[in-house]
Amino acid sequence: MSKQAGQKKKSSGHFIMLDKWLIDSTAWKSLDPSERATYLEFKRRYYGTNNGELALSVRTVADEIHVGKSTASRCIQTLLERGFIELVKASSFHNKVRMAAEYRLTECFCNKTNKPASKAFMKWTKENPRSHLKDSTVPPQVQTSQIRPRKGVHSPMSGTEREVLAS
Known about the structure:
Blueprint (H helix, E strand, L loop, with lengths): L19 H4 L2 H4 L3 H13 L8 E2 L2 H8 L3 H14 L2 E5 L2 E3 L2 E3 L2 E4 L47 E3 L4 E3 L5
Antiparallel strand pairs: 1-5, 2-5, 3-4, 6-7
Helix pairs in contact: 3-5, 4-5
């Protein structure tokens, strides 16, 4: 039977839309299949008004995409590093209550923090993988010559006592 004029097509259910500009990005092309599947799990949990409240644990990702927990953890970390997702609230285990970490998709407006879509993954490049991060500065490292042991500290490796150098 054909659709008669004026009738609307019924929706077949929920779907996940990936924009062409996202799929064509350098960051997306650099993802392996398990990392892409992990992104789809985040996107599957997004329904338009809950960005910033996407709770997804490593165990859940591992179960959903049929990989080990270490692979699931690596996939989430890669998505964070490439700028596809951002951590809004860290996970915790307090008073016997487990709380999964909450994330936001950077391609969409964040409903929790009211931040606009940053699309940080669009700035990611293979040559400069941390280019999408705002504060990519590394704290200055202390030279080993500046580290001085405390006076009278016993060194278990040498069995001797080291003295403090005067400043």
